[in-house]
Specification:
- There is one protein chain.
- This protein is α/β, with parallel strands linked by helices.
- 55% of the residues lie in helices and 12% in strands.
- Helix 1 packs across helix 10 and helix 2 crosses helix 5.
- The chain is globular and about 50 Å long.
- The mean pLDDT is 94.
- The structure holds cytidine-5'-diphosphate.
- Cytidine-5'-diphosphate (CDP) binds next to helix 2, helix 5 and helix 9.
Length: 220
């Protein structure tokens, strides 16, 4: 059997990486893993357990105990998407032992994609640099902070109409700085990743550009 084809999609919050990663997975019939959901789930589990996300021992205990199958629970999955969980996720994600506890689940997903699929698409912050440094294709998706805040604000409006644009922009800027500035697997474009700025692209245009870049790599 040939090794599965791995596509790594990294980038900051609301850059469009999740949408593009999902569309790439559907196009190639590959398995898809949203690794941000794992950090969000760890953060939510800490809160569920009555712990504090800033307390490393609580976060590490939740990460070690975390069961990926919980992501299939739709109520749990909906709670993952709130602004508060996003903030808390970026706090636990800066802790090296939290990251270490969920590395093998991510690598296993990539190396043995569920459903016997021929490949896997993983999106996150450190897929191309740390989780799957040998991925066949790597994309780093970005967009200007004001555009990303606008997209995220629209998404979050459905659940919380009181959330202001300024709060969302501030959250995104704080999170970008924390994700890029941490010592443990910081968010960074891998040297061999293609940069795609989606600021002025529609979803269709961004997908066409991403697909062309990935096909160029997979067809080698
Ligand atoms: O959807 P959005 O881009 O806002 O966030 P996410 O991808 O769900 O990730 C939530 C948080 O998890 C990020 O702010 C990162 O701190 C962390 N994360 C990470 O450190 N490494 C990853 N591979 C994925 C997410």
């Amino acid at each position: 059997m040939t090794d599965p084809a791995i596509i790594a999609v990294d980038g900051p919050a609301a850059s469009g990486k999740g949408t593009l990663a999902r569309k790439l997975a559907a196009h190639f019939n590959f398995a898809y893993l949203d690794t941000g959901a794992l950090y969000r789930a760890v953060a939510l589990s800490v809160i569920d357990m009555g712990g504090q996300v800033e307390t490393e021992a609580d976060a590490v205990a939740a990460a070690r105990r975390f069961d990926m199958s919980r992501l299939a629970d739709t109520d749990f999955a909906a709670a993952l998407r709130t602004a508060e969980t996003g903030r808390a996720a970026s706090v636990v994600a800066a802790m090296p032992d939290v990251r270490a506890a969920i590395i093998s689940a991510q690598r296993q997903f990539a190396e043995t994609p569920p459903g016997g699929k021929a490949g896997a698409v993983l999106d996150g912050r450190d897929i191309g640099t740390n989780i799957c440094p040998d991925a066949a294709a790597k994309l780093f998706i970005t967009a200007r902070a004001d555009i990303r805040a606008e997209r995220r604000w629209r998404e979050l409006q459905a659940d919380d109409a009181t959330l202001s644009f300024e709060t969302v922009l501030n959250d995104i800027e704080v999170r970008d700085a924390r994700d890029a500035g941490r010592a443990a697997a910081p968010m960074r474009q891998a040297e061999d990743a293609h940069l795609l700025d989606t600021s002025d692209l529609s979803i269709e245009e961004a997908f066409a550009a991403a697909l062309a870049l990935v096909e160029g790599k997979l067809n080698r």
